[in-house]
């Protein structure tokens, strides 16, 4: 059962989204995992995951088993033994307490911390505010909302500078794309 406490923005800073549960695999309760960790399997280093639904309610779960696949990895969570049970978890976000995360190296950032930053290109064109990240098959993209929505690839080639004090990201991306 998910926690009955509604999402509290003051407390949300204590959590970091690390991934999302994808479609079931097979009949015995296994699920594909979309991991935001680098490498993706680093998500398995956290003994307890907190599954968050669309309303912000969280439920602690433990990974019973994990297997590598050609496209990432799959898990079976404690208490899940059928495809029907796994279906109830599809799309839930995987959060971990911020206190459990390793310290960052200089120049590294957690995605969650960049949400709300202004994004502009090297020519100084303001694209808007970073709304979210989406992981697409080819690469991850930043979804930036301004006068229109822009999808900017997340790569060292395109993301040039993150200025935390100004809450700004400078990208090498043309205005007209």
List keywords for this structure.
mainly beta, SH3 type barrels, 177 residues, 6-stranded antiparallel barrel, disordered N terminus, elongated
Question: In summary, what is this structure?
Answer:
The protein is built from three helices and twelve strands; from the N terminus they run H-E-E-E-E-E-H-E-H-E-E-E-E-E-E.
Based on the coordinates given, report the CATH architecture of the largest domain. Beta Barrel
How many whole angstroms does the radius of gyration measure?
18 Å
Q: Give the beta-strand count.
A: 12
CATH superfamily of the largest domain: RimM
| Neighbour order of strands in the largest sheet | 1-2-5-4-3-6
Oligomer: single chain
Number of domains: 2
CATH topology (level 3) name of the largest domain: Elongation Factor Tu (Ef-tu), domain 3
Briefly, what CATH class of the largest domain? Answer: Mainly Beta
Note down, in words, how this protein is organized:
The chain is mainly beta and 177 residues long. It has 2 domains: 9-99, Elongation Factor Tu (Ef-tu), domain 3 (Beta Barrel), CATH 2.40.30; 111-171, PRC-barrel domain (SH3 type barrels), CATH 2.30.30. 7% of the residues lie in helices and 45% in strands. It is built from 3 helices and 12 strands. It has helices spanning 9-12, 83-87, 111-114, and strands at 15-25, 30-35, 48-52, 58-69, 72-77, 93-97, 118-121, 126-135, 140-145, 149-153, 159-163, 168-171. Strand 9 (140-145) and strand 10 form a beta hairpin. The longest helix has 5 residues, at 83-87. Mean pLDDT is 87; it is low at 1-10.
